[in-house]
Specification:
Blueprint (H helix, E strand, L loop, with lengths): L14 E5 L14 E8 L3 H13 L8 H16 L3 E3 L5 E3 L12 E3 L6 H19 L3 H7 L9 H6 L9
């Protein structure tokens, strides 16, 4: 978490979930590849039902990772529970699959598209160093040169999954 993310979480959604490849142009929000490595659930009775339903669904998908279970039930959550699920825009909620070189807007950076804890830690240390360099600038300097800063490419993570650039619809 780089800065307060709550200003960028949609207030109308019961659940907001990070995306590996976000595009507002997709026909339905659930068509975005959602990644439950980062999610926010409103503290309401409907939010509690989401988490209980998700947990109970694990029995239907033995051995599946929680993200795979969520992928299999996300449309059920909408249809059966009436839940509003919204992907988080990667401009603000970036990840190694897709991020934007706009440090002035970034709220979080997620080590998705990465296999291996050592790879994640290495590349997240680069993110932390980039962020410290950005935050260490005087406000005037940030306005002048900060927009031209870029994140260090998460090379170890991208190599670990043979990453290629997403193509948006």
């Amino acid at each position: 978490v780089l800065r307060n993310p709550f200003r960028r979480i949609p207030v109308y959604a019961d659940m907001s979930v990070s995306s590996d490849d976000y595009s507002a142009a997709r026909a339905h929000p659930l068509d975005n590849p959602l990644n439950t490595g980062l999610y926010y659930v409103k503290a309401t009775s409907r939010g509690v039902r989401v988490l209980k339903y998700w947990r109970a669904a694990r029995a239907r998908f033995p051995g599946a990772h929680d993200q795979s279970v969520f992928h299999n039930i996300k449309r059920e959550l909408v249809q059966k529970l009436g839940v509003a699920i919204e992907p988080l825009d990667t401009v603000y909620f970036g990840g190694f699959c897709e991020y934007h070189d706009d440090l002035a807007s970034a709220c979080t950076m997620h080590a998705d598209c990465c296999v291996g804890v050592d790879n994640k830690v290495h590349d997240l240390k680069d993110v932390a160093a980039d962020w410290e360099r950005y935050k260490g600038m005087a406000p005037e300097e940030r306005k002048r040169v900060g927009r031209n800063m870029t994140w260090t490419v998460p090379a170890r993570c991208r190599r670990s999954v043979n990453w290629s650039k997403p193509v948006h619809p």
